Amino acid sequence: LIGYLSYLTFFYTESDFWVFFFGVITYLIILAILRNINLIFFKDVVWTEKLYHYIYLLAPLGLIAFYHLRWDNWSLTIVVAVLWYLIIAVERSSKYLRRTDGDWQSIWKYVRWFVKLVYFIPGLGRKKEAFKALRGVSLDISTGMYGLLGPNGAGKSTMMRTICGIYEQSYGKIYINGFDTQLKREELQGLIGYLPQEFGMYENMTAWNYLDYQAILKGLKDTVARENRIRKVLESVHMIDSKDKKIGSFSGGMKQRIGIAQILLHLPRILVVDEPTAGLDPRERIRFRNLLVELSRDRVVIFSTHIIEDISSSCNVMAVVNKGEVLFTGSPKDMSSKAEGKVWRFTVPSADFEKVTKNMVVVHHMREGNQIRVRCISATKPTENAENENPLLEDAYLWLLKSQNYEAKK
Question: What does the pLDDT read at residue 127?
């Protein structure tokens, strides 16, 4: 295509307009091909980036010189050159402003006025890049407890709502037992039970009456079958003794268990539970965690949390998600090994603590007289007296997040 367009531009076409048009099209196609080649084959290779920028900035000069030989018109050549490089300057300024979130004040003062002008042009300087909550997530989830670990805002809730069909994915596919959820949405949604992080209940109703009402809404019209189902789900969440108490008198953990009982009414094969232990005291958290482990014996339980202890004590398989990307999939034991040789323990004088630990990920520290005992994560030995420690799941988690932030800065 490039060869054909070059032939049209330089040898065949006689019309000045079409010569100009085909020359610009050839220039743009070459840039697009080079950009894709760089992204796919030569990512982070300096000389290919330089080659792209040289062609981007200098090729127009060659084309303009060719046009001038045909036109023999200095006025037209100057106008075309000024407009062409003005467009390039606007495009470069727009990219810079988006990359730096509109920081035009740090620009060289002699061109600052131009960048500032571009900043105030709608659609150029202040156009926001499309936000992607998830970026090419690929997971294979089977029966048992599957933990999703990540900081707040990592994309866990978006992933779970997409699995449940509440959100529709922008691209990609979700399959349940080999069936495409977009093609068989109604049939497959009956297999999923979803407990969001925050949900409402009728707190003036007893647990039994509330579940009875929900069962009727789910189509369980036979009285005997409905009562048997309600009794069964209350027993499975260990709430049968509180069936006649009002929901408003329940603790946070008890309400979470009633929420699980509600979604068990239609016998789902997949339970999706979003941050269920957030805000619970340690005792309630352990109870609820054990309940999910019991329920995972014969079904899939996808369990989202930012509390590392919940994952390490209940899940055989886990994934770490941050900024919409999956950083790790596997067992908690395999994940802990990721931080092997990266966890250090040392002591430092309290006066030097801030200086020494400035660029470290400090897991915890404790004062001992005039010394501070530090446990940190570092790729290299941080101090002369530092000793290696056996990594925990928390250490591996912090190391993964640190590694991702380092790659993003590069």
Answer: 57
Half-sphere exposure for 152 (CA within 13 Å, toward CB): 2
258 contacts: CB under 8 Å, gap ≥ 6: 201, 207, 210, 211, 237, 239, 247, 250
For residues 191 and 270, what is the distance between their CA atoms, to the nearest angstrom? 6
Verdict on whether the full-model pTM lies above 0.85? no
Residue-level pLDDT at 102: 60
Question: What are the backbone angles phi and psi of residue 65, rounded to the nearest 5°?
Answer: -65, -40
Query: What residue ranges of the chain have pLDDT lower than 70?
Result: 44, 101-106, 108, 122-130, 405-410
User: Among 222, 270, 275, 220, which residue's Cα sits nearest to residue 252?
Assistant: 275
Q: Given this model, what pLDDT does residue 222 score?
A: 92
Residue owning tokens 């398989």? 317
d(CA 305, CA 152) in angstroms, rounded, equals 9
Element (H, E) at 147: strand 144-149
The H-or-E segment that residue 274 falls in is strand 270-274
Tokens in use for 58?
A: 């200098």
Report in angstroms the alpha-carbon separations of 3 from 48, 52, 170, 337, 382: 22, 19, 37, 53, 57
Question: Taking the C-alpha atoms of 168, 169, 173 and 176 in order, what is their torsion angle to the nearest 10 degrees?
Answer: -40
Q: Are 387 and 344 in contact, with CB atoms under 8 Å apart?
A: yes
Q: What is the DSSP string of 318-378?
A: EEEEETTEEEEEE-HHHHHGGGTTTEEEEEEEGGGHHHHTTTSEEEEEEEETTEEEEEEE-
What is the distance between the alpha carbons of residues 394 and 20, in angstroms, rounded to a whole number?
Answer: 61
How high is the pLDDT of residue 70? 85
* Burial environment of residue 232 by CB neighbours within 10 A (0 to 12, 13 to 18, 19 or more): middle
